[in-house]
Task: inverse folding
């Protein structure tokens, strides 16, 4: 566990975001997370960077479901 409150390591960040470490690693590899910093051979994220990233995510307009068809496609008889 990371005791420095200014930075978050993988397990702590995953816990803060209420996701698994595996999901966090997938988000990192997909480029969905901000770049981590390497601090003395340890990968960490500054708490400020994560807070700014979260605010940006909440500011993005939601994708509209209007005009999208729901359900399965019907096959012609």
Result:
């Amino acid at each position: 566990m990371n005791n420095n409150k200014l930075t978050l390591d993988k397990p702590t960040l995953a816990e803060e975001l209420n996701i698994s470490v595996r999901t966090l690693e997938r988000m990192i590899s997909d480029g969905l997370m901000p770049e981590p910093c390497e601090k003395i051979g340890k990968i960490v994220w500054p708490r400020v960077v994560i807070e700014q990233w979260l605010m940006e995510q909440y500011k993005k307009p939601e994708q509209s479901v209007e005009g999208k068809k729901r359900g399965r496609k019907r096959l012609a008889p």
In short: Strands lie at 7-9, 37-39, 42-46. The chain is about 40% helix and 15% strand.
